[in-house]
Design a protein that fits this description.
single chain, nine-stranded mixed β-sheet, 303 residues, 10 helices, 19% strand, disordered N terminus, globular
């Protein structure tokens, strides 16, 4: 798996910054009606594999939360930019139960030895990552999700190398409403200041410890390279390297919960999500003392 990405407090944002954070396409529209916090939901879900290029799996709720008519969308690229997503299935399932529709690049044939099969699988690209937004548009026109997707609330997301393509897409594609990166950054083993300067939507990272996760320092550098006023966070684990925070099944429920709160806050402005992220434990299922939040401007996301 490829590497790239970084963690503790909060800062303010000027009115001009708030305008920039609204996004290159005019920003995420305000939330309407009474929407429950995503982490409070445990909706029934389903998964389907779609064989139209780019190949992807979609995890989605089979019922809508009360008072909700449209669901935000997550488009995900895998660690190593591999076209096999089974490692991160626990994240997708939790996010779908929380009321998000997750499209993840996948050939639907996970090999026994991921590294040995990497050449056969091929590697996903920025283009394919962005094409998942087109795929979401198609899903919104027919089938069980017809008319149910909120295409103004698209979160571009990924792990490691998939985080690189997520940030590349966010820098160019005005359909992006927010970004979430798991142990990754804007360039493999580095930071691309041009990409970070072009991003105008909220960006959140989860990384391992600064001394163990090779991605952590680069995520911190990404955070510092964002244009002033763009809301952002880096949540760091007390211990754990790149592979641990990215793929450990024992840690995955905590990663999923932190990320779900970030995405809920970024696209819906949910107050409970902000309160969870800024709490001492950072998330409701997190082990006390294991996680630390570093943030700027996230309080301005509340609506």
């Amino acid at each position: 798996m490829s590497a790239a990405a970084g963690a503790s407090a909060a800062a303010g944002m000027s009115a001009a910054g708030a305008s920039a954070a609204a996004g290159a396409s005019g920003g995420t529209p305000p939330a309407t009606g009474s929407r429950p916090a995503a982490t409070s939901l445990m909706l029934p879900i389903s998964m389907e594999h779609h064989k139209e290029a780019p190949l992807f799996n979609v995890h989605y709720p089979t019922s809508l939360p009360e008072g909700v008519s449209k669901l935000p969308v997550i488009v995900w690229a895998n660690g190593g930019c591999v076209n096999s997503d089974f490692t991160w299935k626990p994240l997708f399932e939790r996010w779908a139960k929380g009321g998000f529709v997750v499209l993840s690049l996948s050939n639907d044939a996970p090999p026994d030895d991921l590294v040995a099969q990497l050449g056969m699988l091929g590697m996903s690209t920025k283009k394919e990552h962005a094409q998942l937004i087109d795929s979401a548009t198609a899903l919104n026109m027919t089938g069980p999700l017809a008319g149910k997707l909120d295409l103004e609330r698209v979160i571009v997301s990924g792990n490691s190398c998939g985080g690189v393509t997520a940030l590349e897409v966010a820098a160019e594609d005005k359909r992006t409403a927010a970004v979430f990166v798991l142990s990754g950054s804007s360039a493999l083993g580095d930071t691309d200041t041009k990409i970070m300067g072009a991003i105008k939507v909220p960006v959140g990272y989860i990384v391992g410890s600064a001394s163990e996760d090779v991605a952590a320092p680069n995520a911190q550098a990404d955070y510092g390279a964002l244009t002033e006023g763009i809301p952002a966070m880096v949540v760091s684990r007390k211990s754990g390297d790149h592979m641990t925070v990215s793929t450990d099944p024992m840690i995955a429920p905590q990663v999923a919960d932190i990320a779900l709160n970030w995405m809920d806050l970024a696209v819906h402005g949910t107050k409970a999500a902000h309160e969870a992220l800024t709490s001492p434990n950072v998330c409701g299922v997190c082990t006390p003392g294991d996680w630390t939040l570093k943030a700027k401007g996230i309080e301005t996301l509340q609506r």
